[in-house]
Specification:
11 helices, 25% strand, four-stranded antiparallel sheet, eight-stranded mixed sheet, Ribosomal Protein S5, domain 2, alpha+beta, Alpha-Beta Plaits
Length: 388
Amino acid sequence: MPLDVMAARAAEFFARCFGHPPRWLVAAPGRVNLIGEHTDYNDGFVLPMAIERYTIMAADTNNRRQVALHSTTPGETATFSIHPKVERGEPAWSNYVRGVVAQFQRRGHKVSGFDAVVESSVPYGGGVASSAALEVAAATVLEAMTGACLEPIEKAVLCQQAEHDFAGVPCGIMDQFTSILARENHALLLDCRSRTTTPVPMTSPEVTVLVINTNTRHKLAESEYPKRREQCETAARVLKVTALRDATHAALMAAQKKMEPVVFRRARHVITENERTLQAAQAIQASDWPKFGELMYASHTSLSQDYEVSCPELDAVVELARWIGEEGGIMGCRMTGAGFGGCAVSLVKTEAVARITRTLDLAYEKKVGRQAIIFSSRPAAGARMLKR
């Protein structure tokens, strides 16, 4: 659905709910990570891009010390008090907004009560940063509401902290950074230690990014994510480095006997994934799409075997992509996001998008027994105010 149509729908729904038009309309995109998975919390490199799927928030202040929040996606309403402070609560998705409000309050910004409507085309739980898009949309509204003017990095860290504290997810910084700082027709090479970004042009009309939502979400994701972080920290201690970002493959091999096999494999993924990510940015700049595709496949193999965060459905998508192959228009494919379900991302020849979509749709349903949701996207721009 085009962004302007989504915005009009959100504004109309707000008016039906609250009896007047919204004062503010904002949009924040989801993201797909082209390569560089589970490297962000290891101070490493990631290469995401924003997608043309958005979370829209329509809002206005009210005369109450509370927030009334309607979401069209789950069809639920959340109401919570902002005085004396915001608390966690139900429904669970509202904690992403509650957390952002709490972070503004902690920074001394006076937040008044407000009414809001949320509409989103970012697949929920698909590994394409639906939570970050909601956080960034809320933060963008609160900037306008409070008169705060946050620097992009400060805003991203605020949203990250909201997710840590209120959703209980120890996420890295990639999703929030991308939703805020992304540039149209560019991927974003992010150094997660220095928090510096390098736009990487993706202007070639010859290739398109295809996102394949497996429509699967395994509960393991919530419990296994913290375990992976702990295993990486253990490996860093054995290697005597601040983070795995600082480790080399040679040093890892030399220390292999000092680690449990599972810790060694986790570290091997992170170290090699950082190398792949930097090589991938160079491949994009050189329009070397076959090389980029090779790196995508290698990334998925590492995530599936060394990091063990894939699942049968994601592996099936990648197997089908290999089956279609470069001759059929697919350059590379890999899982994206935290794993255990969600989405895969593929680089495809633009002229073959429709054919590949049909083939993948039918083959995935036959292989897995459920339908996938498949959409293409150009690199999109970051969060913006649509109405102020």
